[in-house]
Amino acid sequence: MLKFGIEKWKILSISLMFALAVSLGINVYSALSRQGMGVVAPLEFVFSWGPNSQRIVNATFVLTLKMWLDNQNLTLVATANDNEYDEFDYLGLVFDTNQNGYIDTNDEPYGLWADNMTVASHLWSHGFLSFTQSKPISGPQKVTFESSLGYTYRVEFPYYYYGPPPWDPSLSIKNGTNSMHVIFYDDNASSMFSAMEGVFTTFSFNVGG
Ligand SMILES: [Ca+2]
Ligand SMILES: [Ca+2]
Ligand SMILES: [Ca+2]
After folding, report:
1. Does a structural domain hold residue 1?
2. Is residue 2 part of a domain?
3. What's the predicted TM-score (pTM) here?
4. N or C, which end of the chain is more exposed by having fewer CB within 10 Å?
């Protein structure tokens, strides 16, 4: 049972009920091979949202994702051209951890704050995350921010969370079609626009022949 004692998250959850994020462009590049225990060459994704569908930036918001798997070591590098740092800006990653073939609210999400911290979180049906009230701990991400470029996240799994089992989404990646959900949430988004302060998209990628 998740508890949300912090007023900020209550407000966030309510506001996110109206979430709408429209992926205007998806460019999927995949040149895949998987051998033995699993070596997957880098997969690259580019998602973009126009200035009227988000208020992360006044211009087009671009989220890029690159990931590769070397046996059980899954590495992701994401960029997000947000314009202002906030420790609670977060990158959310959801794989089909319950292996039912699609992304759902029972899949385990990874909510990665810009200050390199994390806690357990929950994926809501509106597409964003809520975080538990647990004490934050260092996460699997290393984040840099440059005002001219935005964020770069480098995330390395498996990640040995404070309680077993470890976060190891590589176990959820199988040969064939896989589903994934990605979120970027701008905690200090501009209040000048009515569009959403975060974006998300669910997409699929193929591994193997
Ligand atoms: Ca912003
Ligand atoms: Ca921000
Ligand atoms: Ca699932």
Report:
1. no
2. no
3. 0.82
4. N
CA dist., res. 115 & res. 201, Å (int): 23
What is the C-alpha to C-alpha distance for residues 60 and 46, in angstroms, rounded to an integer?
A: 12
CB 158 within 8 A of CB 73: yes
Is the C-alpha dihedral spanning 183, 186, 159, 35 positive or negative? positive
What are the residues whose beta carbon lies below 5 Å from ligand 1 (ion)?
56, 82-84, 186
- Ligand index nearest the alpha carbon of residue 197: 1
Q: How many domains, in total, are found in the chain?
A: 1
Cα 58 to Cα 199: distance, rounded to the nearest angstrom: 14
Domain that includes residue 137, residue range: 7-207
- Cα 94 to averaged position of ligand 2 atoms, centre (Å): 21
Distance 32 CA to ligand 3 centre (A): 23
The CA distance from 88 to 186, in Å, is 8
CA dihedral 100, 105, 106, 108 (to 10 degrees): 100
28-83: pLDDT as tens digits: 333 333 333 356 789 999 999 999 999 999 999 999 999 999 988 999 999 999 99
Cα radius of gyration (the chain): 16
In the beta sheet, which residues pair with residue 47?
26, 63
Cβ neighbour number for residue 114 with a 10 Å cutoff: 23
